[in-house]
Amino acid sequence: MSAEEVRALMSAPGNEGLTWNTPLSEDHAARLIAACAPGPGARIADFGSGWGELLMRLVEAAPGSTGDGIETDPEAVARGVRLADGRGLGDRVRFHEVPAAEHRGDGYDLVLSIGAAHAWPGGTPDALKALRAAVRPGGRVLFGDGFWEREPSPAALEGLGAEPDDFGTLLGMVRQAEAAGLRPLQVTVADQREWDLFESAANIGRGERWALANPGHPLHAGVTEAVDARRTGYYGGYRGTLGLAYLVLSA
Fold first, then answer.
1. Strands across the sheet containing 242-250
2. Tell me, what DSSP letter sits at residue 38?
3. pLDDT tens, 142-181?
4. How many helices (H) and strands (E) does the chain have?
5. Residue 144: which of 76, 49, 228, 225 has the closest Cα?
6. CATH 1.20.1730.10 for the 22-154+161-192+240-250 domain, yes or no
7. What are the domain boundaries of the chain?
């Protein structure tokens, strides 16, 4: 048994219980799509797309539009291709297995990146600059990133495996967007119910369901241990401390 085997078993792309790999409800997603307002024929790119659920919904909202999903995880790309084909979007949504910071497309009408700022060497500031460079003047950017809802406790930092300066404040994120030449049109944050449902469906829920269904498996003890650690880290640590903001920005 290895930690890598446990992580692979609990990975997000293989978790059919996750619609998207971020705390987000159907209503919240619909409001983000409406605020992004992609027009007919729009060119859209998602940097760090995962399996591209939000990208596909944006493409579906704009007749004749196309989407590029930039993602390095082959398991996520494979799931995205299956989903796109199953929804009749195989000729409109393409996936590119390259790091977000290395994709050279530009002139997009809409670009998005949710929880992928770490893909750029300088984190959030570099991510915002890159997204600004990828979108045409007058286009829009949807940027999602973590921030501290309150000063993190030692338990919160331990639960996340984070340092205090890994995230800033919500206002700080808005100011970083403005410094990159982007103006906020809509700023929303994941609420507590979205977070709780996400954590329950992600590693905790997937691992718990698998362990219940596989009591005699050699990985059972490792999966149970990983679930317990994640549950302790969330409920006893970063719940209510780590926030996730969604910024709809104009270029």
1. 93-96, 66-70, 43-47, 108-114, 135-148, 242-250, 183-189
2. P
3. 999 999 999 999 999 999 999 999 999 999 999 999 999 9
4. 10, 7
5. 49
6. no
7. 22-154+161-192+240-250
Q: What is the pTM of this model?
A: 0.94
**Residue 121 DSSP label:** T
Query: Given the structure tokens 């619909």, which residue do they identify?
Result: 30
Residues in the chain: 251
Other Cβ atoms less than 10 A from the Cβ of 224: the count is 16
For 55-92, the pLDDT digits (tens) are 999 999 999 999 999 999 999 999 999 999 999 999 99
CA distances from 193 to 26, 43, 45, 198, 199 (A): 12, 33, 28, 8, 10
Rounded Cα distance between 227 and 207, Å, is 6
What tokens appear for 218 in the block? 């050699």
- Over residues 198-215, the pLDDT tens digits come to 999 988 888 888 888 899
Q: How far apart are CA 24 and CA 197, in angstroms?
A: 9
